[in-house]
UniProtKB/TrEMBL annotation:
This is HAT C-terminal dimerisation domain-containing protein. It comes from Phytophthora fragariae. The lineage of its organism: Eukaryota, Sar, Stramenopiles, Oomycota, Peronosporomycetes. Residues 167-188 are annotated as: Disordered. PANTHER family: BED-TYPE DOMAIN-CONTAINING PROTEIN.
Length: 264
């Protein structure tokens, strides 16, 4: 809603002339019958005018847009395929610095983290801080130990490139993320390369943001089963074949037919 308001904001000045209340023309015979209690019945106001926010409301909306833009930067970065748990933890730390109310959701032991010990252990392994692993964390990542003691190099995450220059809030956040990123090391590790492990929160956030970018604001009468099929194919596109696409379409059509029959 805020983004759509921003798109319309530059056209609001065209309605300034319509902000004055206009009086409808009333015939002379009818004007004599209008009493003082009903004197306002001849007034006409364009409905669009009632929806235009005041100057104070527009300032509040602009401030909220600046704040939401920072979250949009994070959501956009989640679409990158090279995201690691450590990178996401750095991003969450930057967000929590400016929004204290998100600690219960984005902290290391937040509600969205299903296995806090495992994710915390992976972060330390990727950061080259294996010596600081706690007992619970060491046990959680024990199955990632190299079986043949092969040398595995930790991936080096390139600092994110600042792409959005539209708002100061987004630019400030883009500049803060590389500064927050921890120093990566390339020394030999007794653990396997964990760069392929996605953060649990990344998967969830990537799915919702992907639905938003794929469908947009209007579903265009798309049924729930069709939406589920489209997103299933999009998320697993590197694994699907022509046969799996045909099977998914047939299942979606069968589900829509059953729903339509039940409605009748």
């Amino acid at each position: 809603m805020l983004k759509r308001f921003e798109d319309l904001q530059r056209f609001l000045h065209l309605f300034v002339d319509d902000c004055d209340i206009e009086r409808e023309e009333v015939e002379d015979g009818e004007a004599n019958e209008v009493s003082s209690s009903a004197s306002n019945t001849g007034l006409r106001r364009i409905p669009m005018v009632d929806l235009i926010p005041s100057a104070g409301e527009q300032r509040k909306i602009a401030e909220l847009l600046d704040e939401m833009t920072a979250f949009n930067v994070i959501t956009t970065r989640f679409q990158r395929q090279d995201m690691t748990i450590t990178t996401v933890r750095d991003m969450f730390d930057v967000v929590m610095e400016g929004h204290e109310g998100l600690d219960g959701y984005l902290a290391v032991n937040g509600q969205i983290v299903e296995f806090p010990d495992f994710e915390a252990g992976v972060v330390k392994v990727q950061s080259g801080s294996e010596k600081t692993l706690l007992a619970a964390e060491r046990k959680a990542v024990s199955h990632l130990l190299c079986l043949q003691h092969s040398i595995a190099h930790e991936p080096i995450d390139a600092p994110p490139v600042a792409r959005s220059k539209r708002k100061r809030a987004a630019q400030a956040l883009d500049n803060a993320l590389p500064k927050k990123a921890r120093q990566r090391t390339t020394k030999a590790s007794k653990y396997e390369d964990t760069g392929w492990i996605p953060a649990t929160s990344v998967v969830a956030e990537r799915f919702f943001s992907m639905v938003k970018s794929s469908v947009g604001y209007l579903r265009k009468s798309m049924s729930a089963s069709t939406l589920e099929t489209v997103m299933f194919l999009k998320l697993n596109w590197d694994l699907v074949t022509l046969g799996s696409v045909s099977a998914a379409i047939e299942r979606s059509n069968d589900a829509e037919y059953v729903v339509y029959s039940d409605d009748e």
